What we know:
Low-confidence stretches: none
Mean pLDDT: 95
Helix content: 40-55%
Number of helices: 5
Strand content: 15-25%
Strand order of the largest sheet: 2-1-4-3-5
Radius of gyration: 16 Å
Number of strands: 5
Largest sheet: 5 strands, parallel
Distance between the termini: 25 Å
Amino acid sequence: MKITILCVGKIKEKYFSDAIAEYAKRLSRYCKLEIVEVADEKTPDHASQTEIDQIKAKEGDRLLKYVKDDAFKIVLAIQGSRMTSEKFSAYIEQLGVRGVSHIMFFIGGSLGLDERILKMADYSLSFSDMTFPHQLMRVILLEQIYRGYRISFGEPYHK
């Protein structure tokens, strides 16, 4: 299985970079992982809804350049569906059984994802009603993918 994480913004903090590198290393025995970062737009203070929509559209344009039509697309969005780690593991496993060989996860910038990205998604996933920094979300997603593979393979992983 190939897993691509398409995300808006660069990781600036070393502790996030270190965690991402660790999970990427751990995942290398289970899948082919690719992380693609696209530039984020600077958001002015007190941005209007029009400015917010324009920023998300620019970031969306950058993400769309990397979309593969044959990939299964999962967006991370507050309004998405929630599932336990066990259900997430089973979901990823079932995608493979159905013949999906490439999953693309999308993580938006500080304003979220462009509407075009949300609409083209095959699935919308939420980790919480809370808002998390997009850099931290990358770490959380990688940890859950890793946990999911451990569960699928019947390998021990703390609960």
